[in-house]
Design brief:
The protein is α+β, with helices and mostly antiparallel strands. Helices cover about 30% and strands about 35% of the residues. It is globular. Bound molecules: coenzyme A (COA).
Length: about 160
């Protein structure tokens, strides 16, 4: 973990890196992968005007994980974590937790008060649920059958102190 560096600015080459990570995870649907790309394209096209901010983790110049987050419009300081993903090779070694802690610190620095993260209630997402809980996120709301019958949305939140 000592060799990992972090940066907020996005580069055109990050598009491919993001796709590699999210496709390689075998975790996300085609529609979700499209969305991951669109968020990065929005930031590349609109810079600071984009609602989507990024934090990248790099190892020897290669992107190995990232978060995408942003202020929820018309709120005083509530932020959404739109995406967090770590490359297969790096998973389970503490990088996801560090990325999330660094993202929280950046949001706090911008005056953010709460961070929200959403995930599915399906068994496939049990590791993701455990990850958020281990990072002290509280399952604050469950929207029953939100994604599909038997597939509810869990909204996690954390107050950024
Ligand atoms: C979720 C994800 C970002 C976590 O990153 P990571 O680097 O693997 O997680 P870490 O090694 O930092 O683990 C942090 C904590 O979460 C827990 N955790 C992580 N993955 C877990 C798993 N598969 N099962 C159980 N607990 C898990 C760890 O035990 C650890 O807890 P601890 O600090 O109390 O020991 C990563 O696994 C990933 O990219 N998953 C696929 C994409 C995804 O689900 N994204 C979130 C929805 S958008």
């Amino acid at each position: 973990m000592d060799t990992i560096t972090y940066r907020q600015n996005i580069k055109p080459s990050d598009l491919g890196a993001i796709l590699n990570i999210v496709e390689g995870s075998g975790f996300f649907s085609a529609a979700e992968i499209d969305l991951a790309r669109e968020l990065a394209e929005d930031r590349l096209d609109h810079g600071q005007q984009s609602s989507y901010q990024f934090l990248f983790a790099e190892d020897s110049g290669q992107v190995v994980g990232y978060t995408c987050y942003g202020l929820i419009p018309a709120t005083a300081g509530s932020y959404d974590l739109y995406w967090i993903a770590v490359s297969d090779a790096m998973r389970g070694r503490g990088l996801g937790k560090i990325l999330l802690q660094k993202t929280e610190a950046l949001i706090r620095g911008m005056g953010g008060k709460q961070l929200y993260a959403e995930t599915s209630s399906r068994d496939q997402y049990a590791p993701t649920q455990r990850f958020y809980e281990s990072c002290h996120y509280i399952p604050e709301a469950i929207l029953m059958d939100f994604y599909a019958s038997g597939d509810s949305k869990i909204i996690y939140s954390k107050v950024l102190k």
